[in-house]
Amino acid sequence: MKLLFTTLIVCITFFSASFSQRVIGYYPQWVQTNLTPENIDSDIITHVIHAFAWPDNDGNILSYDNMMSEAITNKIHQDGGKILLSFGGWGNSWGFSSSTLSEDSRSVFINNIISTCENYGYDGVDIDWEHPSNSVEKNNLNDFIVELKAAFNNRHPDWLISMAIPISDWSGQHYDLEYLSQYIDFFNAMTYDFHGSWSNHSGHNAPLYPSPINDQDGSVSTGINYLINVRNIPAEKVNMGLAFYGKEYNSSNINQSFSGEVLTKIYSEYAPLINNGWDYYWDFLGQVPFLINSTQNKIITIEDSISISLKCQYARQNNLGGMMIWALSYDYVGGNQLLINSIKKNYLTIDDKLNPEEYSIELKNYPNPFNSNTIIDFYITNDSKVDLKIFDIMGNLVRNLVSDRMPVGLKKINWDGTNNNREDVAAGVYFYQLIVNETLFSNKMVYLK
């Protein structure tokens, strides 16, 4: 198994439950038959965003056929959640420019929004204009949001306004985000689609950190930094986007050249492929997995419960306001939703797994450097699933040390400098990766001879 690498040492910071814990789930019309409102887990999803409606050039409201019904909104309300109606989306934003062009056109559009939300029982709106393209549209969007907020305050002061936003100047230069943050309740950061058919290499869909390390296409962390530190949106108003889908490339490996069409694969499509003709790899730089089918010369960039857990930890550490999912049902496999459950375990719930007493925060080995044997130790307070692996500096899997459930206590695992075939390995730098109940830690060590 080949993986990319980094010297990153994963340090876990633990927080109290005082921060906002929004989990936003986009619910597009085309998944409604696969995931009915009854199957949306209200213990995890705090806000459902129903997608999509959109304005025509005259501010009238259009939507997909058979999309909206009071049965859907009533079910969400019965379960204690909120549901917003999303306007726009990729390919559906053509009417925004003329519908927000003047005070009169905005008034028509806003009145139609309110009537639609009243008729079907929505709790507000999500604005997904992709994207304003000049300064005139930027200013008109500002005026539209101010007037929409005022109309809501007059008639439905409890209604919410959220906004889906890009995470770089490439698409975001004509949004006045700092100004809009006065009126928007929360922003849904589209921290995905960093690579695709437009890229010059087969990169990850949503790497937590840039991979390669100086990749100009960006990452989740660079996108969040852009929104908070460049565009001055308060962190508590930013929801990190999670992509429950990946990209399939005709390529031999990650970050290589590719040919032909790039396909979108949702989680329920690629999950059954793992170890079924497709080998699983982990990118230490991006902190995300990917699949390779060497026979077909293809790769798929993916998410799994571990990469979602690392994104949840990042959101906690940076005091973000919430997580956003695109899209509900994409991880619905056999009645289970593994990615959503990872959000529950690693973001919503402060359970034993996130208790600082459970693990030795300083995962370490000693001696380090070593010349014959080294001991890797860590501490767990609960019976846990444990995986401990050694990788070389090129990212090759060297040794599987542990893959088993382990009882409570201090663990001391010996590595004698041999690989899985019990052959001596060369002197050099090695990485050890510990996964405990889907929480990942890593560190490095030096083998001397």
Number of strands: 23
Task: Kindly name the structural category.
Answer: alpha/beta
Instruction: Return the CATH class of the largest domain.
Output: Alpha Beta
Count of distinct structural domains = 2
What's the N-to-C terminus distance? 25 Å
Rg of Cα set: 24 Å
CATH overall fold name of the largest domain: TIM Barrel
Mean pLDDT: 91
Question: How would you write the strand order of the largest sheet?
Answer: 1-2-4-5-6-7-8-14
Q: From the 3D coordinates, which CATH architecture of the largest domain would you assign?
A: Alpha-Beta Barrel
Shape: elongated
- Percent helix range: 10-25%
Question: Could you describe the 3D structure shown?
Answer:
This protein folds into two domains: 22-350, TIM Barrel (Alpha-Beta Barrel), CATH 3.20.20.80; 364-447, Immunoglobulin-like, CATH 2.60.40. Helix content is 22%, strand content 31%. The chain has helices spanning 70-78, 96-99, 103-120, 135-155, 169-172, 177-180, 220-230, 267-270, 305-317, 338-348, and strands at 22-28, 47-55, 61-63, 82-88, 124-128, 160-165, 186-189, 238-243, 245-250, 259-266, 279-283, 288-293, 298-301, 322-326, 332-333, 336-337, 364-366, 374-380, 384-392, 397-406, 409-415, 428-436, 439-447. The strands form five sheets. An eight-stranded parallel beta barrel has the order 1-2-4-5-6-7-8-14, surrounded by four helices. It has a five-stranded antiparallel beta sheet with strand order 10-9-13-12-11. The longest helix has 21 residues, at 135-155. Residues 1-19 and 351-361 have low confidence and may be disordered.
